[in-house]
Amino acid sequence: MLLTQSVNAQLFSKERIRNLDNIDKKRLSYGYTLGVNSYSFNFDYVQDKKDILVEKSTGFNVGLIGNLRINEYLDLRLEPTAVFNTRTITYDESYFTGFEYTDSDLTREIRSTYIHIPLLLKISTKRLNNFKPFIVGGVSTALNLSSNENNPDDNSNGQFRIKKNMYFYEIGFGIDFYLYFFKFTPSIRGIFAINDELVRDVDPNSPWTGNIHSMKTQGIFINFTFQ
């Protein structure tokens, strides 16, 4: 409630007192971020079959921020973040034509714990009273601590395998709010994998992986940053 009142006062009142007037003049600055995320998969198929369904859930993330000021409008940011998420994929029965299967074979739960490290360029407008909109974009890498890439078992033994190392490009936008004691920044950002995440089963005709040409993570982050 206090935050909402402060933001309303700064955006819509005639008061022009600038909070934290020198905070953006620091060459290096630091902060932390909390947020939620929603991950999915983008599938490309070998043959035209019914889509594999992805049931998304809301995960959470927490991280640190290192900000390098280039000039009044440009900043370079490094944001190492721990990301937690779960997805469930469901196959249509047509994938198992000619195979014996049970209901449990139609679904796979994929739990992911990423160490996500984006390098981002932040492009800001001129500061307006006590807020400043911006867009942000860049590239990132992620290490999946939950990966079972090297597991000798595959889906025939109930193991859906995904790779450990991932690469992404990212784009988003947000607004810096200059409050009395700190700078608060809500932002939204989309991430899109560059490389294929799927580890194929030993059997090239596997009903779980045989028809998948590529499986790439995509997701949305809603972050709240404090500096």
Summary keywords:
Porin family protein; elongated; single chain; Beta-barrel_OMP_2; 227 residues; mainly beta; 1 helix; Porin
Summarize the structure.
The protein is mostly beta strands and 227 residues long.
**CATH class division:** Mainly Beta
Number of helices: 1
Question: Which residues form runs of ≥5 with pLDDT under 50?
Answer: none
Largest sheet: 10 strands, antiparallel
What does the average pLDDT come to? 93
Q: How many domain regions?
A: 1
The SS-based structural class is mainly beta
- Helix share bin: under 10%
Distance between the ends: 20 Å
Word description of this protein:
The chain has one helix and ten strands, in the order H-E-E-E-E-E-E-E-E-E-E. It has about 230 residues and is mainly beta. The protein has one domain (about 1-225): Porin, CATH 2.40.160. Strands 1, 2, 3, 4, 5, 6, 7, 8, 9 and 10 form a ten-stranded antiparallel sheet that branches. Strand 6 and strand 7 form a beta hairpin. It is elongated and about 70 Å long.
Break the fold down into its secondary structure elements and pairings.
Elements: H1 2-12, E1 28-45, E2 53-56, E3 58-69, E4 74-78, E5 81-90, E6 107-124, E7 131-144, E8 165-178, E9 183-193, E10 212-226
Antiparallel strand pairs: 1-3, 1-10, 2-5, 3-4, 3-5, 4-6, 5-6, 6-7, 7-8, 8-9, 9-10
